[in-house]
Structures are given as C-alpha cells and as structure tokens.
Automatic annotation (TrEMBL):
This is Phosphate ABC transporter, ATP-binding protein. The lineage of its organism: Bacteria, Thermotogati, Synergistota, Synergistia, Synergistales. Part of the ABC transporter complex PstSACB involved in phosphate import. Responsible for energy coupling to the transport system. The keyword Ion transport does not apply. PANTHER family: ABC TRANSPORTER I FAMILY MEMBER 17. It comes from Acetomicrobium hydrogeniformans ATCC BAA-1850. InterPro entries: AAA+_ATPase (IPR003593), ABC_transporter-like_ATP-bd (IPR003439), ABC_transporter-like_CS (IPR017871), P-loop_NTPase (IPR027417), PstB-like (IPR005670). GO terms for cellular component: plasma membrane. It comes from the Bacteria. Keywords: ATP-binding, Cell membrane, Membrane, Nucleotide-binding, Phosphate transport, Translocase, Transport. Its main location: membrane. Residues 11-252 form the ABC transporter domain.
Length: 257
C-alpha cells in the first residue's frame, strides 16, 4: 500500500450501525479516514453514502427515529459520547451540501456567520477571516468589490464556493461534502474539484459522489458501499484498477448502479 497507511488517521469508525425507524441503513461499518486527504464515498443510490457522511458530524441527530450504534472517533474523542458538545463538533466537522444553500444575507455576512456565532466580534479580525476564507475558496477576486451584495445574486457555482468559504471560516478540521457538484455545470464542477485538491492540504475531506470519474480525479482513498455495508476501501488508484472484491469491480466497470 501507499503512504496512506502510514499517515495519521483523523477519523475512526468502529462497528457503526444506523437505523431509520428500526430499519438498518448502515451495517457494521469500520473505517479509518486519513488526515489531510480526500476520501470519496461511492456506491449505488440508497447504499448509505449520505447517511454515513451525516454520522460524522451527528447530523442524523436531527432525523427523528434515527438511531446510531457504535463509535466514531475524531482523533481520540468519541463524538457519540454523552458529554459531546455538538456546536463544538460541528465547528470541527463542517459540511457542504448538494445544493448551494447560502443564507439570504450578504456575501460578507455569510462567511462571517460562523465566526460570529463562535464569538468573534472584532471587525478587523472578521474582515481578515472573510478575506482569507474567500481566497481559500477561490472566490475572492470575483466578489471582493461586492461583499455587501446578497449571496443569492451569485451564480450557482459561486454560491457553492461561498458555501465552502462559509464552512472553512470557522477553521474546521474535517470538511464533509455531500455531492457538492451535482447541481453545477462542468466548468463550475472543475473549479470545485480544483478547490478540493487545494483544500486537502489544510483539511481532511470526505466527499460523497455519484460520479466515479470525479472520485478517481480528486480522491486519495475510496470507500465503496453497497446496501449499507462497506465492501472495500483503499487507495483510489487501487480501487479503480485492481479492486479486491468482485462487487467493487462490477460497480466501477458500470455493471450495476
Ligand atoms: N430520513 C430518513 N428516514 C428514513 N429512511 C432514510 C432516511 N434517510 C435515508 N434513508 C434510507 O436509508 C438508506 C440510505 O440512504 P442514503 O441517502 O444514505 O443513501 P445514498 O447512498 O446517499 O443515496 P443517494 O446516492 O441516492 O443519495 C436508503 O434506503 C434511504 O431510503
């Protein structure tokens, strides 16, 4: 195996089960997600990719009748332990959704929202965070003169980069992305993919994607899920060229899904 196995593991998932209304959606998932890299979750529709992603920052807590069993460690902290502060957890584990969802407020206020929530009030500090976050999300040059304009006036691709800026403004450790380019055209998709490649130097990224070419292009590690189970996980190149499991081979060659 490559360097990946020697790298520090940022997230460890142990014996994870997820049930919706008593129906099992994730079955005994065990996974280690390497630090400062991109891990792609792939698999056919309904296999549990988004559910697994949402377990990583406890978004499933919002789903009535969802029940999680097992352990997920962020570094050494069990995020399902009773004392876990969910606001702190979601500061450390940020999320970007399928459809760009900027808040109906200015571009500036979108990015400043998280830092303000976490107590930053100093204007020059906020200015600095907003500028750095927009630069890191490759949006600064396009919006630096229109920061007070409504975020909703931006194009879809710009809105999604703004959502990335908003997510990274609180300096998370992990960034979860749930099909972040599925609503975007090829040009906007290419920009987000380049952005993800740059961001992995600073964050641990976990991305759900339907698009296997995208997984191959941007991820270091790929995990293949099928019917709520993790079939196989490994370096992306290996998963796409010489998978161990026949079901992975069938999926990546387009035999189903
Ligand atoms: N809120 C919910 N309540 C009940 N069942 C749910 C809920 N969310 C997801 N499920 C079920 O859990 C299973 C996994 O869904 P999930 O959305 O995680 O799959 P997915 O692989 O992300 O699918 P897709 O690629 O279509 O988005 C599916 O059978 C789905 O119907």
């Amino acid at each position: 195996m490559s360097d990946i196995t020697r790298d520090v593991m940022k997230v460890k998932i142990e014996n994870l089960f997820l049930y919706y209304e008593g129906v099992m959606a994730l079955k005994n998932i065990n996974m280690k997600i390497p630090n400062k890299s991109v891990t792609a979750l792939i698999g056919p529709s309904g296999c549990g990719k988004s559910s697994l992603l949402r377990c990583l920052n406890r978004m499933n807590d919002f789903v009535p009748n969802a029940k999680v069993e097992g352990r997920i460690y962020l570094d050494d902290t069990d995020i399902y332990s009773p004392g876990m502060d969910l606001i702190e957890l979601r500061k450390k584990v940020g999320m970007v959704f399928q459809r760009p969802n900027p808040f109906p407020m200015s571009i500036y206020d979108n990015v400043a929202f998280g830092p303000r929530l976490h107590g930053v009030t100093d204007r020059s500090r906020l200015d600095e965070i907003v500028e750095n976050s927009l630069k890191a999300s490759a949006l600064w040059d396009e919006v630096k003169d229109i920061l007070t304009r409504s975020a909703l006036s931006l194009s879809g691709g710009q809105q999604q980069r703004l959502c990335v800026a908003r997510a990274i403004a609180v300096n998370p450790e992990v960034l979860l992305m749930d099909e972040p380019t599925s609503a975007l055209d090829p040009m906007a998709t290419a920009r987000i993919e380049q952005l993800i490649r740059n961001l992995k130097n600073h964050f641990t990224i976990v991305i759900v994607t339907h698009n296997m070419q995208q997984a191959a292009r941007i991820s270091d590690v790929t995990a293949f899920l099928l019917m709520g189970e993790l079939v196989e996980m490994g370096p992306t190149e290996k998963i796409f060229t010489s998978p161990e499991d026949q079901r992975t081979a069938d999926y990546i060659t387009g035999r189903f899904g």
